[in-house]
Design brief:
Jelly Rolls, eight-stranded mixed beta sheet, five-stranded mixed beta sheet, 10 helices, globular
Length: 352
């Protein structure tokens, strides 16, 4: 089987040099070093500066075993390398909370890709698995399908993926909680009673495993792996392979964040910006593969407030995360893109 057979059909014309899509040229960012935070010796002043000036930082000494992340990457790549139709059938057949998506990072709460409006940019070159951790941990074992023998042979691999993902989720949730509590202290944010679990609800945590395919030379120059956006989360935690491709906007310029082995990338999302009353920023970022001959693989954890938690800020009208999520999905479906916090800012021309 050629590698292109594992890609969604819409990607295959981009993996060859024939008839690449007509897209505007995207300027490559310059290399930049982002702040580094040591989780074992966490310096609150360095953390405050990273959140205020950058909205993103690299995390060292995070305590996630290298053997676990290596095995998770190995089995994720193996599952993603299955033929496209087999991936679709396998994930549909087991009827688990896991789902397979492609062509867009915009998903609904069930993990299905949202239909995007006519103004959407060109096809986003990524595919992956959506893993809601709270549902995943409630399953002792993925249900067995009644599919053909070939699919049944892949189910033990999918079960191993579930077990590894559950273990990884416990580590990454621990990190998110520790970081959020430290960030809250830098803001003098009151977290008495249930307030911490309302602002950062572990039950909302989800992980997405991404694969960005090989592409033609022209597509590699011009196409994005993931379009320009901010995350809707409180905190996002990324583990990426050595291929690179993450870019952030600082000021009015794009910069490349080079991968560093055995570290994690932590970025703040829209909910943290609102909770901090805009003192801390949700970083604008994108993914643009540098090497067309290799794939890019990454794993990203996202965590949110409780759905009914009311976010109050002097810069935004009060809203719950459910309000925010519904508005984002409505904008993606009607306009093709996320608007985000400006929808809730009375001083913004995009306020609704």
């Amino acid at each position: 089987m050629s590698i292109s057979e594992s890609y969604p059909p819409a990607f295959r014309r981009v993996t060859n040099d024939e008839n690449p899509p007509a897209t505007p040229v995207i300027v490559q960012g310059k290399d930049i070093n982002i702040p580094v935070i040591d989780l074992e010796r966490l310096d609150k002043e360095i953390l405050r500066e990273a959140c205020k000036e950058w909205g993103i930082f690299r995390l060292e000494n995070h305590g996630v075993p290298l053997a676990l992340t290596s095995r998770l990457q190995e089995i994720s790549e193996s599952l993603l390398s299955l033929p496209f139709e087999k991936k679709r059938e396998l994930f549909a057949a087991v009827k688990s909370p896991l789902s397979y998506f492609w062509g867009t990072p915009a998903l609904n709460r069930s993990g299905d890709a949202l239909k995007r409006g006519a103004q959407a940019s060109n096809l986003t070159m990524l595919e992956g698995f959506n893993v809601p951790l709270s549902s995943l941990s409630s399953l002792s074992k993925l249900p067995t399908s009644t599919c053909c023998d070939d699919d049944a042979q892949e189910e033990p691999k999918l079960e191993s993926f579930r077990v590894l993902m559950e273990e990884y989720g416990k580590h990454i949730t621990r990190i998110a909680v520790s970081l959020f509590e430290a960030i809250a202290q830098t803001l003098n944010l009151e977290l008495s009673g249930n307030r911490r679990s309302e602002y950062l609800s572990e039950s909302t945590g989800l992980i997405r495993v991404y694969r960005y395919p090989q592409s033609s030379e022209e597509a590699a120059r011009e196409a994005l792996g993931m379009e320009v956006h901010t995350d809707s989360s409180v905190i996002s935690i990324l583990r990426e392979d050595e291929s690179g491709g993450l870019e952030i906007m600082k000021g009015e310029e794009w910069f490349c964040v080079k991968p560093v082995a055995n570290t994690l990338i932590v970025n703040l999302g829209d909910m943290m910006q609102a909770i901090s009353d805009d003192e801390y920023k949700s970083v604008t970022h994108r993914v643009k593969k540098r090497n067309r001959k290799t794939e890019r693989h990454s794993v990203c954890y996202f965590v949110f407030p409780k759905r009914d938690c009311v976010i109050k800020s002097s810069n935004y009208k009060p809203f719950t995360y459910s309000d925010f999520e519904a508005q984002v999905q409505a904008d993606v479906q009607s306009l093709g893109t996320k608007i985000g916090l400006p929808r809730f800012n009375p001083n913004s021309p995009l306020f609704l």
